[in-house]
Amino acid sequence: xxxxxxxxxxxxxxxxxxxxxxxxxxxxxxxxxxxxxxxxxxxxxxxxxxxxxxxxxxxxxxxxxxxxxxxxxxxxxxxxxxxxxxxxxxxxxxxxxxxxxxxxxxxxxxxxxxxxxxxxxxxxxxxxxxxxxxxxxxxxxxxxxxxxxxxxxxxxxxxxxxxxxxxxxxxxxxxxxxxxxxxxxxxxxxxxxxxxxxxxxxxxxxxxxxxxxxxxxxxxxxxxxxxxxxxxxxxxxxxxxxxxxxxxxxxxxxxxxxxxxxxxxxxxxxxxxxxxxxxxxxxxxxxxxxxxxxxxxxxxxxxxxxxxxxxxxxxxxxxxxxxxxxxxxxxxxxxxxxxxxxxxxxxxxxxxxxxxxxxxxxxxxxxxxxxxxxxxxxxxxxxxxxxxxxxxxxxxxxxxxxxxxxxxxxxxxxxx
Amino acid sequence: xxxxxxxxxxxxxxxxxxxxxxxxxxxxxxxxxxxxxxxxxxxxxxxxxxxxxxxxxxxxxxxxxxxxxxxxxxxxxxxxxxxxxxxxxxxxxxxxxxxxxxxxxxxxxxxxxxxxxxxxxxxxxxxxxxxxxxxxxxxxxxxxxxxxxxxxxxxxxxxxxxxxxxxxxxxxxxxxxxxxxxxxxxxxxxxxxxxxxxxxxxxxxxxxxxxxxxxxxxxxxxxxxxxxxxxxxxxxxxxxxxxxxxxxxxxxxxxxxxxxxxxxxxxxx
Lengths: 416, 269
Fold this sequence. Notes:
heterodimer; A: alpha/beta; D-Maltodextrin-Binding Protein, domain 2; six-stranded mixed β-sheet; 13 strands; globular; B: mainly alpha; MetI-like fold; 74% helix
């Protein structure tokens, strides 16, 4: 770790102060972790503050990801900025393109950069913006299949479905018309659709981030699976996660997708045995990884910059990653946090079965698309799902229109 | 005794039920166990008061309540004061450009709060008010809504009353506080309820201009209980009940004022 500090110090040597002044350097860390997640973060930050004297991190809750962005934008307009902020991954490109973030390429030279899961290395490196590292993976998760174990037993389904064909078959077996629907599909969960498309061999966005590729035969095949399940009456459509969770807890729907982090919120609400399995695939396993990363702001004082680096480096150490994952159920970004047995007690996998499945899926994981216009494109994709799943419109025409609209948005954003 | 009007009464009860149902559900859920929220009966099988303790411990709610109370009360008092003065000027004083200025004031109602977020933040920062009560109160100390409501009420008052007082040697200041304010308490109370509610429910602005726990408000506390991947609903509802309570109290206090004022004005005519 010392070596990395030196390396980073060398990179910013020009602006480094001769010696650090008396007393610790204070840095502000804006985060969006509420309730138990916020308490876990506080525990981690307190741990850092207790282990050394040079840096004092002040963690500040800034609401949800959108509110945090509003606060950050207001601060930037007033010539002020947090030192470190937890940014939802889709927000990073916009701030990076706006020139607000510090490029973190020294991270690439870190000896242990290779210890980061490939998916997180890819996520941090934005190909569209100079192939530069703009953020450090922090609280990320992948989706899993949650299911009602009792209903599976009743329907004599021994193993959770591994493929979408098996999933639809299981949904048919679990559905009891008027009482129970086999599968819940959530309109706002665009990442599930992304994963389904990838698993069919399709792509969501082109490499340059300028084209939505939902009209490829592979992507259409994925959309067709969703449409077919709803048409058959073995899948039900939900507007958001909460409404699905309510029906799942009440035993009105037997399966559904959710983030691995949902386990801790879901488990206390239900009376039946909760089980979790890998995301089903169409022709090859693929899962999206999404969440938030940490970004350091440009133009902060050199002392603050160095102090922020020190904190971030400490935070990405395997021990910290294992502790963070164990406390919250988020994925550890470092491979050794999961493979080195010394961290197993911190990780505490038996307490969160979803975390185990989430980690097992990491070899097939891909970062979610992050083109600057993709935030708006997701709204178009949601509208598309609404038309196909709720109004029963033929997918082909709707998908083509969505692609046209999305490409206009992506092109506009790319030239901004 | 008033005459029985079965159709109207049923309708009133029905509408009341529609509005009261979420509140009732909130309180019932607040005392349930998590497993009873979606699976159990509507009426709690057992009472879990610990939800309130858990909610209270999730965030420093004691301090948050104090802050919200201070901010909402001072904002309400400021709005009433500035609205009464401005409304009197717009209703009765004669000066060049009066109606244009009034339109300008009304125009501010058209500007959505999101648009003002950044400029207001920049102003507050330049004044050195970040993370203070001033940042939470001053930007909202005047309200076009309050001015509008009071101006309309002031204008309904016969000018002759005012002229009679002037003949007796009263100053405009005396006329305003002795005549206008007492007879328009109804409108003032209505405006006060809205302003207090707005200040109490504010979330984004307090999040943006405050950073320390010492300066944050109840809505920030509530927000820290919500997460897009799920939440503990009974604890959230317990917190929501606690946060809603002062607002209901203020509403009932001012509502009595509204009713009494209406009754008094009825007796006078």
